[in-house]
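Marked as duplicate of an earlier ticket. Keeping the data here for the record.
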Amino acid sequence: MGQPLIDTHCHLNDPAFDSTLPDVVERAREAGVRGFVVPAYDRVSLKRTADLSSLYPSAIFPAYGVHPWYAGDNINYDILLSYLRRQNTVALGEIGLDFTPDAPPEPTQIEILTRQLSLARELNLPILLHCRNAHDSLYQILKGYWGGIQGVMHSFSGSYEFMQRFIDLGFFISFSGSVTRKTARKYHRNAQAVPLDRLLIETDAPSIATESTVASAVEPRHCVEVARKIAELRGIPFEDVGTGAAENARRLFHLP
C-alpha cells in the first residue's frame, strides 16, 4: 500500500470508545490507517477532543465546532474560539445544516452556521460540513463565502448535480461506509465521478454502517473498506485511491 490512510471524520471522542480507544487506534494502524481527524460537535465534546489530541498528538487531529443538532443549546463562542485558536487545530467542525423533522428550527441552525463560517474565514480554517435535506440552502449560504473558505462535504449524501456545485465552490467530497453498500447507486455514481484530487475518505465512526459492519461496530480501520470500494467502482488500483485521498487530506488540513 502507498502512504497511510487518513480517516478525515471519525468521532473517537464519542463515549462509545471510552474503554476501547487504545485497541481501536492500534487496529487502525495495523490496517494502514494512521491519521484521524476528530471533530467536536457540542459543548462537552470540545474538551474531550482536546484531551484526545494530547494523548495521540501525532495521530489525532482535532476540529472544533457546534453541530446543527445542538444549535438550540446555549453556545459560548468565547470558549469555542479558545479551542479554535489552539496551535494543533486543523479545522472548524462539525458544522452544517440538518433539516430533518427532529432537528432545531432552520433559522436557528442558519444563524449558528453563519457565525461559525465567519470564524472559519477569520481564522483561515477549513470546515467540516454536515448536510441532510438541506443541500440547496447550504449551497446558497456557501456561495457567499466563495474563495474565502475551504472545506469538505462530510459523508456526502447529495445528488451528482449538487456534488458538482460544491466542487465548483472549491470543496472536497468525502465518502463513508455508505458507498460500500451494494444498493447505494447514488453514492456509487458520485464516487465514480468525483475528481481524484477532490476525494476524501472517512468512517464517521461509530455512526455509519458499511456493507460488512453495523454502524456501532465501525472503526477508523474501515476506511480500508471504503477506499477498496471506491477503487473497485472507478476501476483503478486501491493504492491510487488511498494515496490520493491521503494527499488531499494533508493538503486541506495542513497535516504533517
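See parent ticket for discussion. The chain is about 40% helix and 15% strand.
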